[in-house]
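Reply to dn_fold:

You asked what the input looked like. This is it:
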Amino acid sequence: ALWLDKDYIHNALAMEIYTAAGVPASDTDFAFSVRNGAFHSVVSIVEQVDEDFLERNDLDPDGALYKIYNALQNANNRPDPPTGVQPDNFVGVEKKTRENEDNSDLQAFIDGLNISNVNDRLEYIFDNVDVPSVLSYLAASVIIRDRDMTTKNWYVHRNTTTDGEWQAIPWDRDTSSGYHGFLNPGGSPGTSINALYMDNRTPLHDAIYDTPILREMYLRRLRTVLDTVLKAPGTPANELTLEARVDEYLAMLQTDTAADKALWGVPTIFGGNYDPNETLAQSLNVLKNYLAGVRANIYNDGLLPSAQAASPSLTIGTIEHTPAGDQDREYIQLTNNNAVAIDISD
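and this is what came back:
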């Protein structure tokens, strides 16, 4: 149901942003719902994060999958609330696969992210985290800045039977990208306390942000994602892909969503400030203003690196195809001949 989001498209657009950044994210669509022969509502159809999702995204379907309801602080199972009581969204986890096992793998992951020695933590992360995927996840998250993406509404997955690496998977971003009632941590469209980093963090965020090598990698990946997905200030209007996508959604949904809003009204919880007379076009202009504001805010931050050169110089070094003792330790060495980090994700 889309009662909370009367812009209707926040989750769908967010998933498209994650996908464009190279992050596994749910497919979404919309449906016109009819009950007893009469219009009922506009609903969003969202792909579940399950074994089929994992297979579609070339992830280990037999790996450990957890839905997170906290800031990755512990691996405790989320308690079942008493009948009729709204569950606390900020405690525990739900294990979705390998349910015959305990949660010690997740607790070991949390412990590894909290290693105090920076060099030991870096070694742990390179051995146990899908670093490229996590960097892309954090970069896309900075664009959309969802209200509760670090306290619930996300998954972590481990390729348990293959490389053993963990990554993050987004879920339920219906209050992202300038949602009417929240906008941004800074309080106005397109502003934030920290332009390049999430203000509400988890140990996964901190481990990347607070480790110099990983922070440099993150900022380089962030610039690539911004340039390819959000686009830099001064980009011609006809080349702004996110704004164009918003316009496509408007053309597709404006008639049916007007009927939906007339029947169901607008939300008043969570500080929602929708005007019941506001059209979808007016609502989506708020979203466009958000995109313009966050674009200016992020690109004006003095710590964002310059755009990457079109053909940066890289050299192939050692190619180890027969490592002693462990064939899984094959590698190809790439040497960066530049004074700055280089993103080779694509």
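The CA atoms of residues 220 and 342 lie 7 Å apart.
Hope that clears it up.
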